[in-house]
Design the sequence.
């Protein structure tokens, strides 16, 4: 099952982030899921969709590259990098037109149906905001 979970993680980033397919969230995320680390915890696909829409608005050309995925049982960890141009106000600040490039990690747990049921996220938000000129580099 480990290989199937690894493939799923790659598919998640490709469909949801690179292609921007919000409808894929409902297909891939369990109704009772919880997502941590992107602000307030988000419950279910409907809880995650506003974050996705805001981030994709801010970076409509975002490209996420999965650098590594390891799995054990129903848990997978992914190390990824992302780049995009700040073209929208989805972050709560006007678009700067600047490029950003960040790295991050995501841990996910799958349920018995093979859907994402819990996720933990961490990425260089400070570095992203500094690259955009929103927070000065000190």
Sequence:
């Amino acid at each position: 099952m480990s290989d199937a979970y690894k493939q799923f993680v790659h598919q998640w980033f490709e469909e949801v982030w690179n292609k921007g397919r919000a409808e894929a969230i409902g297909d891939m995320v369990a109704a009772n899921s919880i997502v941590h680390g992107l602000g307030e915890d988000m419950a279910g696909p409907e809880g995650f969709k506003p974050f996705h829409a805001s981030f994709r608005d801010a970076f409509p050309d975002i490209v996420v590259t999965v650098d590594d995925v390891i799995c054990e049982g129903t848990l997978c960890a992914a190390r990824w990098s992302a780049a995009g141009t700040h073209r929208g106000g989805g972050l709560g600040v006007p678009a700067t037109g600047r490029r950003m490039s960040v790295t991050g990690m995501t841990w996910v747990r799958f349920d018995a149906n093979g859907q994402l049921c819990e996720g933990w996220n961490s990425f260089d938000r400070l570095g992203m905001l500094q690259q955009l000129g929103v927070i000065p580099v000190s």
In short: The first strand starts at residue 29 and ends at 36.
